[in-house]
Fold this sequence. Notes:
This protein is an alpha/beta fold. It has helices spanning 13-17, 27-39, 62-68, 84-90, 110-117, 121-137, 160-172, 189-199, 219-228, 256-265, 274-288, 295-305; strands spanning 8-11, 44-49, 76-80, 101-107, 141-147, 151-152, 156-157, 177-182, 208-212, 233-236. It has a single domain, classed as Alpha-Beta Barrel (TIM Barrel), CATH 3.20.20.70. Strands 1-2-3-4-5-8-9-10 form an 8-stranded parallel barrel, surrounded by 8 helices. Strands 6-7 form a two-stranded antiparallel sheet.
Amino acid sequence: MNLPSKVKLVDVGPRDGLQNEKSPVPAAVKIELVQRLQDAGLTEIEVTSFVSPKWVPQMADNAEVMAGIARKPGVRYSVLTPNLQGLQAAMAAPRELWPDEIVVFGAASEAFSQRNINCSIAESIERFAPVVAAARAAGIYVRGAMSCTVGCPYEGEIAPERVAYLAGLMKGIGVQHIGVADTIGVGTPRKVQRAMEAALQHYDLNDVSGHFHDTYGQALANTLICLQMGVWQFDTSVAGLGGCPYAKGATGNVATEDVVYLLHGMGIETGIDLDKLIDAGQFISEFLGRKPNSRAATALLNKRAN
């Protein structure tokens, strides 16, 4: 079994994890969370998104958060920019406050694309083309998030061919890295493997990552099958932040703590201090008034308490 010796995790908690929180999270708390994540050894953090505050009020403080982070050398800070206005807003700040990377997104499901952003997959990629071109011209790295790669709340199961189609479109507009996302967490290892293989028709192994939701408790199994394929980059969310808006009461993103525990237990390096990571998860969970949504964190916090 050819497992990677080192894995890079992108913590999406500050952005993907917090964006659907109903109560406002102050910029100072978001900044503190980012600080704690980088102090724990994370080198890739998705910080915020530059979207209309009308649609995502939680991210209205994006510029304040980006300006408030004490940047650490070797850490890449990314933001979601769904359109040219978003990119321009992210680049309106002085150069040293720009993101190192932007994220654009597309769906492998036509129905999801229509419901989510009111256009077809092909149209959504056309909209992103100028965003990608402008970012790359400015020296900003471009990552593409491919949602609903194994299942869709409207269409059901998604064929691998749809994933390959989307990956090809993203490659065509200059997206440098793609994430294969199981947005509603319905994937099981074989299905995820087929989706990942479809993405690898267009992208090198070093330019793909997995993004798994734990709605049905399959995220770690899906991570493991990708590790066995040689995939070494994954999106995770501290304390399992971020619900799944399409499955009532379901958990969302896989917890960074659980993935780190899995990887360290397999002798795979992450550069992350699990204790400090658990503290970061506890910090944000206490602010939100709930327990961390991580099995590993819960077990290790109980152990500490005894």
